[in-house]
Fold each of these.
Amino acid sequence: MDKDISYKDKKVISIGVMRELTGLSERQIRYYEERKLIFPERSSGGNRKYSFSDVELLMEIANKIEDGVQTFEIRQEIVKEKKKEEQKAIRKKMLQGQLNAQFGIKNYK
């Protein structure tokens, strides 16, 4: 497993535990996956595996659904947030590269 992944992002939680943690039914969790709101990994046996970040995301999704927000609107928000995070990461990497070049630091990653 990638050493750079935060413990919150490691996919180690089964759907049964996810059900207990979120209070959602397995059907609801699968529905949110079908609607491309959450992306579990699959074990070699085909079982879904979730992360603690997924728990938080599912709780946010459930709250928004309860408030009357449609799943396609939630998906649009998620896509927009992912793009924002990707742009932030690119800017950070570019800035680090500029700093490394300015000060003659070699990046060993």
Amino acid sequence: MLSEQQHMEQSEKKLVVLGAGESGVGAAVLAKQKGYDVFVSDSGLIAEDYKQQLIDLNIEFEEGSHTEGRVLNADIIVKSPGIPQKAAIVKKVREKGIEVLSEIEFAARYTLAKLICITGSNGKSTTATLTWFILQKAGLNVGLAGNIGKSFALQVANESFDYYVLEISSFMLDDMTQLKADFAVLLNITPDHLDRYDYKMENYVESKFKIIQNQREDDFFIYDIDDEEILNGLRKYKSKATYIPFSQQKILSEGAFLDENSTIIIKVTNQPTFAMSINELALQGKHNVYNNMASGIVAKVLELRNESIRESMGEYQNIAHRLEHVAQIAGINFINDSKATNVNSVWYALESMPANVVLIMGGVDKGNDYNILKDLIHSKVSAIVCIGKDNARIHEAFDDETDVIVNTSSMKEAVTLAYHLAKKGDTVLLSPACASFDLFKNYEDRGDQFKAAVREL
């Protein structure tokens, strides 16, 4: 938290937010509240609801380009995680020595809440939401933010939570220097999306391990001891925190492990041992056992009752339209991610998926830059089924990255075609990257139509 003196000093400071999505607009709202001279700049078009928020608060903004002189005149830059470090404007900002922060780091300066920071290549959204659900059901005053829900900065501006569960991507970690995680959770590290890291795995691993930087003796580091990249990273990156591992391969004296491959056991110092059959978990699958272990350790360290944790793990349901598991038909999983109305959201959805995805995408394109998706499309997507009135830019972006790209004119047609393109073990993922207003009322209507079409197969 900042002192009164620092508050007075910042009132004259110029703060520029690069990117006017959920995190950027949230950062702008908080900065305005804290007395900064705020300007928002987005090289693309700003969604109407975000634009209206800025207008209502009399926050200056521009869209369609960055006015270089205005940006480079800033004292502080809050950068959207979706903007690469190699972007021309970011390079110029760094050359000038202007302080660059992520929205998460900026917001953390203005809250005394405990921060439960969750990262990993896969399972972040599920583990963050599950952790929030367990804590909230147990009666804790807890918010959910990061790459999920309303932005952390907006919640810090408008709410007063005692805890925040934050889903943190490597992109966010790249712009963090001072943030301290009271709980740092590292789920896994797999060699995906390395285009942002000069195609060097060690750079990506370094980014993920920034989750433990600045931790102190009274903090906790919760990690998957079965993950080879994490084990390698542990030799290089150190935290002063208490280390608590989880494993499906080893019996541990402290942490979470499987007893006879069927029961999750969680042992935390000075707390009653927790035990729950994996068959009783609401979220099934090997990867979800890991996710439940990580969430369970957080809950045990916070001294929540075993009955409460067990109840929450047994009845948890993924949030609607955000990586929502709809059904498994003929061995094919159908996932509804209709809430993914921009490219970044699709990136996060694809990074959490196993390989062999049939991707349903398209709609009202707001000038999307599809470049950040190319590597993931190439490595994970076997076919793209376009839904929307104009799919030319999707074809243009991904013709060389996947074998099949087809157009459809209704959700029912898209789901039926995706079903025929998929094989047993594949995933059909609705993650549109676009607004829904050409064929649907909103993203909820689009997701509901997807679920209805799946159930009719």
Amino acid sequence: MSRHTVVLRPARVEDALFLALLWSDALRRGDRQEQVADVELVVKDSLVSAEQRLLVAEVDGAPAGAVLLKVTTLTPLNLEPVVQAVSPHVLPEFRRLGVGRLLVESAAAYAEELGIAHVATGAAAGSRDANRFMARLGLGPHAVLRVAPTQLVRAKAEAQRPPADRHRDRARAQLLAARRTLRRQQAEQQV
């Protein structure tokens, strides 16, 4: 069994294409150029921020994974500081070489360096391997982040309202529309 050399280094702007490919599932939708531009901004921010580090893992000199470390609060209401390991990803061909462990370990080291008592990260709900990996490293669930398109939430919330409320709102909207039409017609007649 051959040994591989795994090292972490700060990300550079020229890593943006690699990072965009690595994090393609975590980036906003768009074409590759937009994603690379977004990642370039994240890299530049991490280079000047005292509260962020973006690390690239290399295996025998080849980029293998990355993680963004960010100092934040546990929640917007719980102001306990935490180091958040954002999107610790490893390319499939470099898994089971200790790269992921090293990425999460770097979050713990950063937290210790800053005197922060907690480390947090996230894994896709459907990623059983990632969730099991995080659990093996002692990271337990704290909350479930749920996301949906705004229009879908509006439609579902509207459908859950009692029919009387929906009817009253619809009637109110129709009344306001009729008043606007009447005012517009009266204004046109005065001209």
Amino acid sequence: MANNGTNKNADVLQSSPLGAGGRQRLVILGSGESGVGAALLGKQKGYDVFVSDGGMLKANYKQELIDNGIDFEEGGHTTEKILSADEIVKSPGIPEKNELVKKIRAKGIPMISEIELAYRFKGDSKIVAITGSNGKSTTTSLIYHICKSAGLDCALVGNIGYSFAKQVAEDPKPLYVAEISSFQLDDIKDFRPDIAILLNITEDHLDRYDYKFENYINSKFKIIENQQQEDYFIYCLDDEVITKHLENINLQTNPLPFSMRQELNKGAWIKGDQMMLKVQEERMSMSIYDFALKGKHNQYNTMAAGIATATLGIRKERIRDSMADFHSLEHRMEHVATVRGVEFINDSKATNMNSTWYALESMRKPTVLILGGVDKGNDYSEIEELVREKVKAIVCLGIDNTKIHEAFRMIAPVLDTDNAIDCVKQSFRLAEKGDVVLLSPACASFDLFKNYEDRGKQFKDAVKEL
């Protein structure tokens, strides 16, 4: 695809979607939250919008398209209609190796992500964008919580659940706090956050990046590729992948690092049991024991949130209070119940090894660990030491658990289950008073569940039935 042609076409659309030859045709591939949001914004801005989905539309999304007079198809793609587009918004779930995507690329039709379309029409609003392999949702939600508590008029958007484009179309705000995935970053052009946060980079989603870690790293760093001198880049100085990559790029933005290992001139760091924060003239300290979010990984998340909100000019007293009263997210280290002395924790959102490592690292009681699902190329040796130290038994929740058995059968008992009810019953049987049952699967959920939310909900329902 020729870059010059793409940029020229996109610039024309940005200035006016109503071209001289009639309305510009915008095709949306995928009808999930982001796809329908893009369709609604495109319609509002005067595009001729067509939505195409290879699967069946959810009833609520279909009704939204009908109510807004947006043309769509489901259960398959009409190639001719798609290739007649002036521009295409691609769902982040559709990979480059998709045959239809290959045809679009071959024809040179500009293809963007929903966040790019939203950015095009966000006006003077500010964006805080958060990405990373782990901790995105928690950090995004904490920043939003601090901003709301400080009285800022803002919206929580992006990968966390609500379409950025739909928010811009229906209820624009002066500030957007956006969780951004690498898939969403892959198809940006001009997207430029005022504050960009890169929490960490570990091997994840490599099946989407030709199994080349460098491709995934480059995707994450796209979050700052359009930033300028007046913008801010918040990143983890302790992450060797990030710091090594920074050695090879010319940073055009203001860096604000955070660290547990060293004191800094600006940014945030942990000294003893105190978090120290210094941004411009704003300085604050806070005991890590007062953080609502527990565990070492959440100290990193909290530092990132503290820097971002201080950069927005929020007073340190408000930041401190909000960090102390924040409630953790559903499906992320979520306390479910304590049944006859056994605590159940739902960490269903842990779909990779790094997330599960952090979950185990924070355990302070003997643990029955629930693993399994769709393996994304996991190397279970990454958690072997923690399993030896903390885990008394492993219960698999998946169809193919071969790799888990091979990795841990000499360390702890490993049992198989293929549904949430049996999984919870077996885990409870293996646990004793004072133990924890931790669902932190390190795998995707699609073999047995609709998504990680469905897995977490079924787990919680099964616990309540004990």
